[in-house]
Design a protein that fits this description.
The chain has about 110 residues and is α+β, with helices and mostly antiparallel strands. Helix content is about 15%, strand content about 25%. It folds into 2 domains: about 35 residues, no CATH class; about 55 residues. The two termini are about 40 Å apart.
Length: about 110
């Protein structure tokens, strides 16, 4: 917030408090951007993939892989353990229509951290 008002350094901030510096000029307001919207004509045409770090585990770092189909709002998520970085081998190789019908992972799959 200080940087936004031009008070990011100690001399500027203390100068304003002491009354030796003039108040910073107000920044011009920025016009709001147009609302963004994604649209797909059929399921599977536009799928958003994401991967993020969950935390350290006994066997490595935990990563959540997520996919969301824009047209049908079907979602898929799995948790995998990788030694250091996420891997693309865990991204789904099936279509969004198969996410609902796919069987749960077998016991012992890398779900636990």
């Amino acid at each position: 917030m200080l940087k936004r008002h031009g008070l990011q350094t100690a001399p500027k901030c203390l100068g304003l408090i002491a009354g030796t510096a003039p108040p910073p000029e107000a920044e011009e307001s920025v016009e709001p951007q147009e609302e963004r919207h994604l649209d797909a004509s059929r399921p599977g045409k536009l799928v958003h993939f994401d991967c993020f770090y969950i935390g350290p585990g006994v066997r490595g770092a935990g990563w959540q892989y997520t996919a969301i189909d824009v047209a049908s709002f079907d979602t898929w998520a799995e948790i995998h353990v990788a030694p250091k970085n996420p891997s693309s081998r865990y991204t789904p190789g099936r279509s969004p229509g198969e996410w609902r019908t796919s069987s749960p992972p077998e016991a012992g799959a890398s779900r636990s951290l």
